[in-house]
Amino acid sequence: MHEKIIKNSKKVNLEIAKDYYWCACGLSKDGIFCDGSHKKTNFQPMKFAVKENKNYFLCSCKKTNSKPFCNGSHSKS
Fold first, then answer.
1. pLDDT at 5 over 80
2. Are 41 and 25 in contact (CB under 8 A)?
3. What helix, strand, coil percent values describe the chain, rounded to 5?
4. What angle do CA 40, 41, 45 make, to 5 degrees?
5. Would you give the DSSP letter of residue 33?
6. Residue 45 in contact with residue 51, Cβ under 8 Å?
7. Which of 18, 53, 59, 61 is most buried per CB count within 10 Å?
């Protein structure tokens, strides 16, 4: 998995046939993938998979309406 941070999103190469867990609490070290930091909160990570091998922009600001993918909400006022 290759990754590149771009402002409030992270470009990550994801693969089909794998499950990923998106951080919903915002407390994980990278802000994108769950690392268990939510355990003292009421948040749960969001399990997701992709339909094709490619680069995706994942949201780290948690404002997106298309979780876990970035839709540019962080740049809207």
1. no
2. yes
3. 10, 30, 60
4. 110
5. B
6. no
7. 59
Which token pair is 16? 């089909």
Furthest C-alpha separation in the chain = 37
pLDDT at residue 6 is higher than 50 = no
Domain ranges of the chain: 3-75
In this structure, are residues 31 and 74 in contact, taking their beta carbons and an 8 Å threshold?
no
Of 65, 72, 68, nearest to 22 by C-alpha is 68
**Cα 8 to the center of its chain, rounded Å:** 10
Q: pLDDT, tens digit, for every residue of 52-72?
A: 999 999 998 888 899 999 988
Q: What is the pLDDT of residues 25-51, one digit of tens each?
A: 989 998 899 999 999 899 999 999 999
Compute the Cα dihedral for 24, 6, 18, 69 and give only its sign.
Answer: positive
